């Protein structure tokens, strides 16, 4: 992978394809897809939409109905995944017995009006971890 940003992801007129995403992100996208398979079918239809930002380029949002599940920002050879949890979700995360690294992230996470933001790069995610966090997100959205 190139160390420079892929210019195709910064052209507002050309929406990336799944093949371009897989090429740019690598195996991290497989973890996301598998976690959605594990948890997504139980919680209703999950849709994904490409969006463009002048500062970030093309990124994906994953939603269930009108509720945002997470953001996926493609990076060269990796990804950045952002999840926002409401108070109920944060309480469930604390109770879930997540790995120390996630609890450390949670302790230092920024809180906004929308909730508490957790950010992960692809190498930090496993199918089991993301599935657990998505299950918590689904349950806290009701």
Oligomer: single chain
Helix content: 25-40%
Number of strands: 6
Beta-strand fraction estimate = 25-35%
The CATH architecture can be given as Alpha-Beta Complex
Radius of gyration: 15 Å
Distance between the ends: 41 Å
The major β-sheet equals:
6 strands, antiparallel
Structural class: alpha+beta
Q: What is CATH's topology name?
A: Aspartate Aminotransferase, domain 1
CATH domain class name? Alpha Beta
Uncertain regions spanning at least 5 consecutive residues: none
Query: What's the helix-strand series?
Result: HHEEEEHHEEH
Number of helices: 5
Count of discrete structural domains: 1
Average pLDDT level: 90
Please outline the helices and strands:
Blueprint (H helix, E strand, L loop, with lengths): L17 H8 L2 H13 L6 E7 L3 E8 L2 E9 L2 E8 L1 H9 L4 H8 L3 E2 L2 E7 L5 H14 L2
Antiparallel strand pairs: 1-2, 2-3, 3-4, 4-6, 5-6
Write a short abstract of this structure.
With 142 residues, this protein is α+β, with helices and mostly antiparallel strands.
Give your account of this protein's structure.
The structure is a single chain. α2 (28-40) packs across α5 (127-140) and α3 crosses α5 (127-140). A hairpin with a 3-residue loop joins β1 (47-53) and β2. This protein has five helices and six strands, in the order ααββββααββα. It has a single domain (7-140), classed as Alpha-Beta Complex (Aspartate Aminotransferase, domain 1). It starts with 17 loop residues before the first helix and ends with a helix. 24% of the residues are buried. The chain is an alpha+beta fold. The mean pLDDT is 90. Strands 1-2-3-4-6-5 form a six-stranded antiparallel β-sheet. The chain has helices at 18-25, 28-40, 87-95, 100-107, 127-140, and strands spanning 47-53, 57-64, 67-75, 78-85, 111-112, 115-121.
């Amino acid at each position: 992978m190139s160390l420079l940003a892929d210019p195709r992801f910064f052209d507002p007129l050309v929406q990336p394809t799944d093949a371009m995403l897989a090429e740019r992100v690598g195996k991290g996208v497989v973890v996301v897809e598998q976690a959605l398979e594990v948890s997504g079918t139980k919680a209703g239809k999950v849709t994904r939409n490409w969006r463009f930002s002048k500062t970030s380029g093309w990124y994906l949002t994953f939603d269930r109905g009108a509720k945002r599940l997470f953001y996926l920002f493609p990076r060269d050879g990796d990804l950045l995944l952002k999840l926002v949890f409401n108070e109920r979700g944060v309480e469930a995360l604390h109770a879930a017995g997540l790995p120390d690294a996630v609890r450390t992230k949670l302790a230092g996470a920024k809180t906004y009006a929308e909730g508490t933001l957790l950010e992960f790069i692809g190498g930090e995610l496993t199918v089991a971890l993301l599935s657990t966090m998505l299950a918590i997100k689904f349950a806290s959205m009701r």
